[in-house]
Amino acid sequence: MPTLTKNRYIREWELMYATFPQFTAYARPPIFGWRGYLQSRKTHRRYRVTLESQEALYPSARPWAFIEPRFGGHWLINGALCIETPWDPATHTFANTLLRVIEYMEKYDA
What we know:
Layout: H1 6-19, E1 24-28, E2 31-39, E3 46-54, E4 64-68, H2 94-107
């Protein structure tokens, strides 16, 4: 089971900063993640997006993605978006998860 290492966290931070500079990192141990806003291309509405995981679960499990306000019907019991694409802990990142959020927004005309 892969675990979160210092090098992995640094790589994640660098990738998020380079790809989505409007998102900021946060940590409330054992929870950590990124927060920011995405604007809908269709409606121009801004959505607050929070990506987060538990230190003990990441990168073995995909981070949770919370969108406010919610739309569509693909939500887990904890309020996170249900993302049904495969997750590979060795290659996927928080940035990959944010790309899935963007795809969801575009698919469901947010």
